[in-house]
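Retry 2 of 3 after timeout on previous attempt. Resubmitting structure tokens to design endpoint.
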């Protein structure tokens, strides 16, 4: 059993229950407890013959109380951005504390969503979205292991939707980078 990652989910929708994105890793002091509880749940399920990837949703309440809500016997909404991070960085996740370390030894954090929707991107191309991020100087840089990677680009033209992974050395900087990427993409839609 290996705990792969912890995330804070971003929820939206009519009732505020729809997953629209995530931030990695979950903040301390909760993150260490999530790693511990997920490991316990994984070992209990493995002892009963469960194999493969699964996701566990936890609710963190007042006083940092942690309650398990559900187990999904499949990959969850945060699986794709984490897999993209691993493909980009080739680092490692620290099992004891849930941090992701770049090969340079420094931590990397990210904010991601595969449900970014900008109606004005409709009719535009994936190449235009990529170019906007590159021209803004936000594109992912392999040398630093930071920047913005776009994914799930197949729906840009028809629906104005795509995915954004914003990787930085801190959670706060990752959030700023994500917001900057949204601004850069909004620039694609401005009339010339």
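Retry 2 succeeded. Sequence:
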């Amino acid at each position: 059993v290996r705990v792969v990652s912890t995330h804070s989910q971003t929820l939206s929708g009519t009732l505020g229950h729809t997953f629209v994105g995530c931030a990695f890793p979950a903040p301390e002091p909760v993150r260490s407890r999530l790693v511990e509880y997920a490991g316990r749940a994984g070992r209990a399920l493995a002892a009963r013959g469960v194999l493969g990837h699964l996701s566990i949703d936890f609710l963190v309440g007042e006083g940092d109380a942690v309650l398990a809500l559900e187990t999904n016997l499949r990959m969850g909404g945060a699986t794709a951005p984490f897999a993209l991070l691993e493909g980009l960085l080739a680092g490692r996740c620290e099992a004891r504390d849930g941090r992701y370390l770049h090969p340079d030894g420094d931590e990397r954090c990210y904010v991601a969503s595969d449900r970014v929707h900008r109606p004005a991107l409709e009719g535009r191309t994936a190449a235009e979205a990529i170019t906007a991020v590159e021209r803004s100087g936000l594109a992912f840089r392999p040398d630093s292991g930071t920047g913005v990677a776009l994914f799930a680009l197949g729906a840009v033209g028809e629906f104005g939707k795509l995915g954004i992974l914003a990787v930085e050395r801190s959670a706060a900087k990752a959030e700023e980078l994500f917001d900057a990427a949204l601004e850069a993409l909004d620039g694609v839609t401005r009339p010339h």
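Attempt log closed. The first helix runs from residue 30 to 47.
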